[in-house]
Automatic annotation (TrEMBL):
GO terms for molecular function: 1,5-anhydro-D-fructose reductase (1,5-anhydro-D-mannitol-forming) activity; nucleotide binding. Its EC number is 1.1.1.292. It comes from the Bacteria. Keywords: NAD, Oxidoreductase. It comes from Microbacterium ginsengisoli. Residues 8-134 form the Gfo/Idh/MocA-like oxidoreductase N-terminal domain. The keyword Oxidoreductase applies. InterPro entries: Gfo/Idh/MocA-like_OxRdtase_N (IPR000683), Gfo/Idh/MocA_oxidrdct_glycsds (IPR050463), GFO_IDH_MocA-like_dom (IPR055170), NAD(P)-bd_dom_sf (IPR036291). Pfam families: GFO_IDH_MocA, GFO_IDH_MocA_C3. Residues 143-290 form the GFO/IDH/MocA-like oxidoreductase domain. It is an enzyme of class 1 (oxidoreductase). The gene is afr_1. This is 1,5-anhydro-D-fructose reductase.
Length: 393
């Protein structure tokens, strides 16, 4: 058994994702006994007293603070998780870099390509490893899909389809939280969901070089939120004051890939029917494959004239064997974050960027930015190639 060095963890924002980060650090230590670091939950920051109480009483943090700057200044904190709302990511990430703390941040990392680029460049200049919450990469079936594509098993890739459809904002009574305001969220479903889809496509197939996009907002006004409302599912009063939705409910892109493939990427936050229908399809000259998050542990593969066969994830797929003993026993969403935590911890231990990087988040942000420009002009827009250390290549 590897002797582990304690590693102090600081958490900024104790919402749903912050709580999952905390659990994932501990789960990583259990599923990856070869890790050289043993995460210790030192301090959590949240302006909400209820969040702070949860951090100590349930998650097991040693202490809590209201101000995130106290987390970054704490000498016992070695790494930081940034799980705050989008509009605070840039400020907090730059402060973490200034403090010399490697960080694990949720996406979208910035409210656009400009903020994302600054975070990525400054982190790399400071020599800090990072991690970004592109958790769908870590699905064992996706790992197998990448192997099949990159090995040439399904031939030259011709076309790709990505569809991330959800219903979390389908109710018109859903409150006008920060997620619907450009100054606080940046883009809408493009940054929230399709950034995941774009990263997944690049991880499996390769870099997206240009896009032609359209966007639409189907619920133009929403009721103003009650004090403290922040989640996807917060409701407002139907009879109360309303405000304008400032970003997109729906987006669709045509895309060109570096290797010559073409693709279609689509996403909605107001689709009635799909709950979390996140689909990747890759077609090649010798076969094709399909993966759907709703059937996370399955991969459909067609590599002969008989059509698709469904293959269940097993020990030969990615990190599956770290979690389950054999085919048929399923993994879940939280397990993907444990894999992500392990990659972050290995990155910190080795100084090598193994987890999805800030540069990967910058690359996804450039696709989102190009899509927004294309939606305004109606034409094709080139996606700039980032010069940071990406891990999707």
């Amino acid at each position: 058994m590897t002797t582990r060095t304690p590693l102090g963890v600081g958490l900024i924002s104790v919402g749903w994702m912050g709580r999952l980060h905390a659990r994932s650090y501990l789960a990583a230590g259990q599923h990856y006994p070869d890790l050289t670091y043993a995460p210790r939950l030192v301090v959590a920051a949240d302006p909400d007293a209820g969040g702070r109480e949860y951090a100590t009483d349930v998650l097991g943090f040693d202490r809590t603070v209201a101000d995130y700057s106290e987390v970054l200044a704490d000498p016992e904190v070695d790494v930081v998780s940034i799980c705050s709302p989008n509009f605070l990511h840039h400020e907090i990430a730059l402060a973490a870099i200034e403090a010399g703390k490697p960080f694990w941040i949720e996406k979208p990392m910035g409210r656009g390509a400009v903020e994302s680029r600054e975070i990525a460049e400054r982190a790399e200049s400071a020599g800090l490893v990072t991690s970004v919450g592109f958790n769908y990469r870590h699905v064992p079936a996706v790992a197998r899909a990448r192997e099949l594509v990159r090995s040439g098993a399904i031939g030259t890739i011709t076309n790709v389809r990505v569809s991330f459809l959800a219903d979390y904002s389908a109710d018109p009574a859903g409150a006008l939280t920060w997620r619907f305001l450009t100054a606080r969220a940046g883009s809408g479903v493009l940054g929230d969901l399709l950034s995941h889809g774009a990263d997944l496509a690049q991880y499996v197939v390769g870099r997206i070089t240009s896009v032609n996009g359209l966007t639409a907002t189907f619920i133009p006004e929403r009721p103003l939120p009650a004090a403290g409302a922040a989640s996807h599912f917060s409701k407002g009063s139907e009879d109360g004051p309303r405000g304008a939705v400032e970003n997109e409910d729906y987006a669709a892109l045509l895309a060109r890939f570096e290797g010559g493939a073409v693709g279609v990427l689509e996403s909605s936050r107001v689709a009635i029917g799909p709950r979390a229908e996140y689909v990747l399809e890759v077609y090649g000259t010798k076969g094709s494959l399909r993966w759907d998050f709703q059937r996370l542990n399955e991969l459909q593969i067609a590599d002969d004239p008989s059509g698709y066969r469904t293959v269940m994830a097993g020990p030969e797929f990615g990190d599956f064997s770290r979690f389950q003993p054999g085919v048929g026993t399923s993994m879940g969403f939280d397990d993907l974050k444990a894999i992500e935590a392990s990659l972050f911890l290995r990155s910190v231990a080795t100084g090598t960027q193994l987890a999805p990087s800030a540069a990967d988040a910058w690359a996804a942000a450039e696709i989102v930015s190009a899509a927004l420009r294309s939606a305004e002009t109606g034409g094709w827009v080139e996606v700039p190639e980032v010069d940071g250390e990406t891990t999707f290549g």
